[in-house]
Amino acid sequence: MRLFRDKQIKFFGLFLLLFMLLTFFSGIGLNLVQEEEVKNLFLSHDRAIATSLLEQGVSKEVIAKAVTNTVSNQEGEDLLVYIGVTEDTAIRFLPFIAEFQQVSRYMMMLVGAGLTLFLFGGTYLFLWKRDQLYQQGLKVITRFTEGDFSYHLPQRNEGTIYCLFASVDQLATILQSKNETEHKAKEFLKNTISDISHQLKTPLAALMMYHEIISAEPDQLETVSAYAQKTGLALKRMEELIQALLKITRLDAGSIVFEKESCCISELVAQGICELTTRAAREGKEIIVDQAPEETILCDWQWTSEAVGNIVKNALDHTVPGGKIHITWKRTPAMIRLIISDNGTGIAPEDLHHIFKRFYRSKKSLDTQGAGLGLSLTKSIVEGQNGTLSVQSTLHEGTVFTLSFLTEM
Hints:
Its main location: membrane. The chain has three domains: 2-145, no CATH class; 160-251, Orthogonal Bundle (Helix Hairpins), CATH 1.10.287; 258-406, 2-Layer Sandwich (Heat Shock Protein 90), CATH 3.30.565. It starts with 6 loop residues before the first helix and ends with a strand. Helix 5 (160-216) packs antiparallel against helix 6, helix 6 (221-253) runs parallel beside helix 10 and helix 7 packs across helix 9 (301-317). 16% of the residues are buried. The chain is 61% helix and 11% strand. It has ten helices and seven strands. The chain is an alpha+beta fold. The strands form two sheets. The chain has a five-stranded mixed β-sheet with strand order 2-4-5-7-6. Strands 1-3 form a two-stranded antiparallel ribbon. The protein has helices at residues 7-55, 60-68, 74-82, 95-145, 160-216, 221-253, 265-273, 277-282, 301-317, 374-384; strands spanning 260-264, 286-289, 296-300, 324-331, 335-342, 388-394, 398-406.
């Protein structure tokens, strides 16, 4: 039974069993003592009668016969009635019986008091230990209500109370995890708002300046046209920045559900680079898609094509005119790898472990385009689909990004 897995209850049960055994053997002992007292009582009574009859000259034979006689008659009963010895006679008038009663009463009171103290002491000890356990649990639960989860309820033994403590401890762990999640969510929201405000500060300041220039020289068409163009670029940058931030925020918050489907890699790549080929041609760069064997991967078409486009855009940002970006893919027994490489400026070793951080810009690339969000967004997209994104780079030689996805089962 689960009840007796609790050590305290088990010991209390053994204590009650011991108490019952003590009560039983105490009853047997009292019975033996009473038997001895009854025997002594009758011996004392017979000795007193024999002594009295001898003093009155009654022969020993008659006395012996009277003492050993077990049969009574009416004359004997009448005689006892005459001298006042009947069933209604008070015990105090029967000295031998009164003495026996007094001795028996004292012995029973003594044994009863001893057993009562023993039962009370054992029960008090059990209840005191139980109360200590409850007090300990109460203190820990009070800590939980105050938000301090560094304490734990006792779970060193088995039993219902310890199962209850384990459940409460598990509940506290869930509450702690929930509190930490809420705290992280608040920190995340705080950091996101800070990032947005910081990143929008520069284009907003530029827009205000352009507006002042245009307002000051409304008749200068060339000036108005030039700064109107700059205003458009600043607005476009702000739109791209806000969109990227919103996407990263939704991905980090887990509010995006990727709708996976079987996608042809060549079509996925074509979708990702369709808006970048014009830029590449304008900048004198080339995007080369290798004619690798056709493969399919299980992914979200829209998000994954955007991830590919972000990496290619990053490659265009860090290659000089005449540079080339190669895109290929290959299958391994467990994964399909999409590889995007370039022969651009490469990444310094000290920057390699930071490039996926939000808004990170290397000191060597401050003059390049972008706000430092593309690679962070790409990493969130790939890892959100249980894929991996890795990078290898050699400074002044080029960079290789590898997107790895599990093969379809």
